[in-house]
C-alpha cells in the first residue's frame, strides 16, 4: 500500500513536499459511508466523457491507482479474472481512476484493461472525495449511488469487494402481483399470486415481505410472509402465493398492500401494490 502521490518523488525533495502537503491535504474524505454521492464527469483513456450517473442501477467500484504504484499494478493484473469477469454481466461496473502522468497511465490501461472503464482525473481532486491518503483505494457505490464501502491496499484477494457486491446487488424484482384489486372484510384471509424475476445470471437469495399501507403512514404487520427467504436461479421467474389475514380491528377504507423483495422489510429493493378495499 502506498501513500498517495508521494511515492513518485525523490527522497531529496520529499521533506519539502511533505511540509506543504501537511497543510493542504484533506484530513478526511468528502464522502462518508451512507452518503449519496454527487455525479462526476471524467474522460476515459479514449477521450470519451463518462458520467457516473449514466450507470444508475449498477454496483460501481471506483478503483483509484497510479501507474508507478506497485500494489496498484499487482491489483490490476489480478482484476480481469479476480473481479471483472465474474461480475461484468451481473450489473457491476468498475472505474479505474488515475491522475498522474496520463501517458504513462494509458500504457497501464493497454497492459491490464479487460473491458472495464479506465479514466483520468486531470485535476486529481476526485480521489480526495473518497480516499484516505493511500493507494490502491477502492470505493463501492450501490445502485442508487450510495457509498457503502471503501478501503485501501491489495492483499491478493478481492474477497472483501466481492462480498459487498453480493450483499448489495439487488437483481430480483417483483414481476407481477395478482389480483390488483381486492375487496375483503375484517378477519378475511387474502391471497395474492406473486411472480419474482431474477434479472441476472447468478442465483439470488432475497427476503420477501408484505406490508399494509394505511392512509398517511406505513404499518408493518406480522404475517406468514415476513422474513421468508426466496431463492431464484439466474435469469428465471418464480411464482409463489402470499397469504395474510385482515385484522379484526381494521377500519373500513382503501389500503395498499405492498409485496416486496429486498434485504428486509425496512429496506425494500423492488415492490408492487395491490389495492385493498376493506368493507
Structure, described:
The protein has about 280 residues and is an alpha+beta fold. The chain is built from 5 helices and 18 strands. It has a 7-stranded mixed beta sheet with strand order 3-2-6-5-4-8-9. Strand 4, helix 2 (about 70-85) and strand 5 (about 90-100) form a beta-alpha-beta unit.
Distinctive features:
279 residues; 6-stranded mixed sheet; 5 helices; 21% helix; 40% strand; elongated
Q: What percentage of the residues does DSSP assign to strands (E)?
A: 35-45%
Task: From the alpha carbons, calculate the radius of gyration and give it in angstroms.
Answer: 24 Å
Give the N-to-C terminal Cα separation: 66 Å
Taken from the alpha-carbon principal axes, the silhouette is elongated
Unreliable residue stretches: 2-27, 216-227
Q: How many helices? A: 5
The helix content is 10-25%
Which structural class is indicated by helix and strand composition? alpha+beta
Strand element count: 18
Task: Give the neighbour order of strands across the main sheet.
Answer: 3-2-6-5-4-8-9
Quaternary state, please? single chain
Mean pLDDT: 79
Order of helices and strands: EHEEEHEHEHEEEHEEEEEEEEE
Major sheet, described briefly? 7 strands, mixed
Amino acid at each position: 500500500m502506498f501513500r498517495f502521490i508521494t511515492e513518485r518523488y525523490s527522497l531529496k525533495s520529499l521533506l519539502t513536499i511533505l511540509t506543504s502537503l501537511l497543510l493542504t491535504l484533506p484530513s478526511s474524505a468528502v464522502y462518508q459511508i451512507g452518503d449519496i454521492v454527487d455525479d462526476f464527469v471524467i474522460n476515459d483513456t479514449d477521450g470519451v466523457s463518462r458520467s457516473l450517473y449514466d450507470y444508475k442501477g449498477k454496483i460501481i467500484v471506483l478503483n483509484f491507482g497510479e501507474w508507478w504504484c506497485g500494489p496498484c499494478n499487482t491489483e490490476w493484473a489480478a482484476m480481469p479474472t479476480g473481479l471483472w469477469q465474474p461480475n461484468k454481466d451481473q450489473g457491476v461496473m468498475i472505474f479505474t481512476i488515475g491522475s498522474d502522468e496520463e501517458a504513462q497511465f494509458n500504457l497501464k490501461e493497454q497492459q491490464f484493461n479487460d473491458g472495464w472503464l479506465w479514466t483520468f482525473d486531470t485535476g486529481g481532486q476526485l480521489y480526495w472525495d473518497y480516499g484516505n491518503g493511500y493507494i490502491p483505494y477502492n470505493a463501492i457505490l450501490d445502485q442508487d449511488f450510495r457509498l457503502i464501502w471503501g478501503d485501501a491496499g491489495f492483499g491478493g484477494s478481492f474477497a472483501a469487494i466481492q462480498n459487498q457486491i453480493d450483499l448489495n446487488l439487488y437483481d430480483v424484482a417483483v414481476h407481477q402481483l395478482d389480483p390488483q384489486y381486492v375487496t375483503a372484510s375484517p378477519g378475511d384471509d387474502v391471497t395474492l399470486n406473486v411472480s419474482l424475476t431474477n434479472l441476472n445470471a447468478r442465483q439470488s437469495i432475497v427476503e420477501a415481505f408484505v406490508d399494509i399501507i394505511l392512509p398517511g403512514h406505513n404499518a408493518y404487520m406480522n404475517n406468514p410472509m415476513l422474513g421468508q427467504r426466496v431463492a431464484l436461479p439466474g435469469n428465471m421467474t418464480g411464482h409463489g402465493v402470499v397469504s395474510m389475514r385482515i385484522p379484526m380491528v381494521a377500519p373500513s377504507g382503501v389500503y395498499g398492500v405492498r409485496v416486496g423483495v429486498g434485504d428486509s422489510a425496512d429496506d425494500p429493493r423492488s415492490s408492487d401494490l395491490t389495492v385493498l378495499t376493506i368493507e
